[in-house]
Design brief:
- This protein is mainly alpha-helical.
- The protein folds into 2 domains: 46 residues, no CATH class; 106 residues, Aspartate Aminotransferase, domain 1.
- The chain has 5 helices and 3 strands.
- β2 and β3 form a beta hairpin.
- The chain is elongated, with a radius of gyration of 20 Å.
- It starts with a helix and ends with a helix.
């Protein structure tokens, strides 16, 4: 979070120094700030790994958009056809996430995906209970969610 704050600050400094307060100029400042931080990340421990997290985050955004599009297509098809193929159920998903931020982020991303809903976290924070609209194959669903969790943890850790 410190590195992201520095990147935002460098982007704002760029906007101030150039005197052009526009979206594209801010994006350019953020890119220049990112490059500067990437160059010095090995010398400042707080910045270590920041240059790798930004591409991972961008990849995660595209991955998640694709997952949402696929899930929307399945739900839309099911709603538009006369035969409903839903098989709802609740699963217990064992978490690799440790912190509140990681668990909350994963639960929110699961809830944002059509057809799944995060219900609760166990008291010991090791299991996330998820309602799935299509529970044909529980293991496949767990692997899909595990993929989201792994990608998310690569960004947050």
């Amino acid at each position: 979070m410190v590195a992201l704050s520095w990147n935002l600050l460098l982007g704002l400094v760029w906007v101030i120094l150039t005197g052009t307060a526009s979206g594209p100029n801010l994006v350019l400042g953020l890119i220049f700030g990112y490059l500067c931080l990437a160059l010095i990340q090995n010398q400042i421990p707080v910045l270590d790994g920041y240059a790798q997290k930004v591409p991972r985050f961008i990849g995660f955004v595209f991955f998640f958009i694709w997952e949402v599009v696929k899930a929307n297509a399945v739900v839309a098809y099911d709603v538009a056809t006369p035969n409903l193929s839903i098989r709802p159920g609740v699963i217990a998903f064992p978490l690799e996430c440790d912190t509140d931020l990681e668990i909350t982020s994963l639960a929110n991303f699961i809830t944002l995906t059509p057809g799944t809903l995060s219900l609760d976290v166990s008291d010991d924070r090791s299991v996330l209970y998820i309602h799935a609209m299509y529970l044909d194959d529980e293991e496949a669903l767990i692997e899909d969610i595990r993929g989201i969790e792994r990608r998310l943890l690569r960004i947050l850790r």
